[in-house]
Specification:
Blueprint (H helix, E strand, L loop, with lengths): L8 E4 L2 E4 L2 E2 H8 L3 E5 H15 L4 E6 L6 H9 L3 E4 L2 H9 L7 E3 L6 H10 L3 E4 L2 H13 L4 E8 L21 E2 L3 H10 L3 E7 L10 H19 L6 E3 L16 H14 L6 E4 L3 H4 L3 E11 L6 E4 L8 H5 L5 E3 L8 E6 L8 E8 L6 E4 L20 E6 L2 E6 L4 H4 L9
The structure holds ligand LLP.
Ligand LLP binds next to α10.
């Protein structure tokens, strides 16, 4: 069986390895729940983006929300990436990790004045603006501090990315982007505002997209807009096509990034837009399959209707199953001989929604360490402290080296900003 994450994740004999390290050993050494990422897998996922874009002006902006650990950001910064951020906090992380503000695109539907100012002062490359109201406030903030905000409008191409409704963003009914019909007028407004310099256009139609067609449809609609906007005398330098490329969690077969990009570039060139700088904002496809969440089996609780395998990771550590009913592969880090049984893998949190996997064929015993696969994206970044559970530790591996890149939280960390009332 090829695991999502191969070749960086594979069994050697009975033991599951990431790069050259046994995950079972890492769990024993660092405790569980534990996120483990492969630096090699991240860089291998980036390579097809860079290769496909080689020879033309481009920027790959890693979507920080998918995995914001400083060491992960540092890895992508060193590889030449820019970053797609959605908050002032993410900007601080990028800078702390050695990222270049000049390669940052600032996305998000609700940037505060404080965040706008922070982005302007840091010198971010571009604000991806989502409404006229935001444009006006941004212009005001920029003028007040004597700066100009470079801006791209996020347009909503109204295409169906065919993904989960919570992560589909390019349809009319979504809160995201400037509607296609008003985009030209909004660009004209932007061009008049004193604190704004129009530099590009962007779209992002959703996440975990496994087909090329929605991207090509969105691109056609965006290029139509580019032509209409430039006909009014506004020049657009870059074309930002967002992120969204899916990964294999179970049996999905998303296109490879270079295949997708080749088709997009062919259309861009065929329509006479080949001179523009191309920006992408991938998150999941760079880190999703580069990470696993390790969790120890605490108790087995066979029942009449269901068998429960109670593990020490929970919905607070990994929210995707509870929130989206997302399927994430689960395997034993040490293969057992003998029959498998069907288990619901559940955590200790007091909610019925606290499950990591349902109806999984597993051969398990208490004390075994399970790996939840494809957990490198939207795992740790969505973790919470529900039930006063400290967040997991994180480890980065590369070959036979491993570094702790985040310490496990202890309860005192969780209430250190709280205060008792006076007598
Ligand atoms: N750019 C923008 C403007 C975005 O909103 C997103 C993700 C990305 C780029 C990166 O998309 P990616 O390449 O990772 O698909 N928590 C959900 C996913 C939410 C995605 C939100 N936006 C999940 O766990 O599936």
């Amino acid at each position: 069986m090829t695991l999502p994450g191969a070749p960086f994740l594979a069994y050697r004999g009975q033991d599951l390895f990431m790069d050259d390290l046994s995950l079972n050993d890492l769990a024993r050494e660092h405790g569980t729940p534990l996120y483990v990422y492969s630096r090699r897998a991240m860089l291998a996922a980036l390579a097809p983006y860079q290769k496909a874009l080689q020879g033309r002006p481009h920027l790959v902006c890693f979507a920080v929300k998918s995995n914001s650990n400083l060491a992960v950001l540092q890895t992508f910064a060193r590889a030449g990436c820019g970053f797609d951020i959605v908050s002032g906090g993410e900007l601080e992380r990028v800078l702390a990790a050695g990222g270049d503000a000049g390669k940052v695109v600032f996305s998000g539907v609700g940037k505060s004045r404080r965040e706008m100012k922070q982005g302007l002062e840091a010198g971010v490359r571009c604000f991806n603006v989502e409404s006229t109201a935001e444009l006006e406030v941004l212009s005001e903030v920029a003028t007040q501090i004597g700066r100009t905000a470079r801006v791209s409008l996020r347009v909503n191409p109204d295409v169906d990315a065919g993904t989960h409704p919570y992560i589909s963003t390019g349809l009319k009914g979504n809160k995201f982007g400037v509607a296609h019909e008003v985009a030209v007028a909004t660009y004209q407004r932007a061009a008049q505002l004193p604190g704004i310099e129009v530099v590009g256009i962007d779209c992002h139609i959703g996440s975990q997209i496994t087909e090329i067609a929605p991207y090509l449809d969105a691109l056609d609609r965006v290029l139509d807009l580019v032509e209409a906007i430039e006909a009014t005398g506004v020049t657009l330098h870059h074309l930002d096509l967002g992120g969204g490329l899916g990964i294999t969690y179970t049996d999905e077969t998303p296109p490879a990034a270079d295949v997708l990009i080749a088709q997009l570039l062919a259309k861009i060139d065929a329509r006479g837009h080949g001179h523009r700088e191309i920006v992408f904002e991938p998150g999941r496809s760079l880190v999703g399959n580069a990470g696993v969440l390790l969790t120890e089996v605490m108790f087995l609780k066979p029942g009449e209707q269901k068998n429960f395998c109670v593990v020490d990771a929970a919905m607070n550590d990994l929210m995707r199953p509870a929130l989206y009913e997302a399927f994430m592969g689960i395997v034993n880090t040490r293969r057992r001989e003998g029959a498998t049984e069907v288990w619901d893998v559940v955590g200790p949190v007091c909610e019925s929604g606290d499950w990591l996997g349902r109806d999984r064929q597993l051969s398990v015993q208490p004390g075994d360490v399970l790996a939840v696969l494809s957990a490198g994206a939207y795992g740790m970044t969505m973790a919470s402290n529900y039930n006063t559970r400290g967040r997991a530790a994180e480890v980065m591996v590369d070959g036979s080296q491993a570094w702790v890149i985040r310490e496990r939280e202890v309860p005192a960390d969780l209430f250190k900003h709280e205060h008792l009332l006076p007598n």
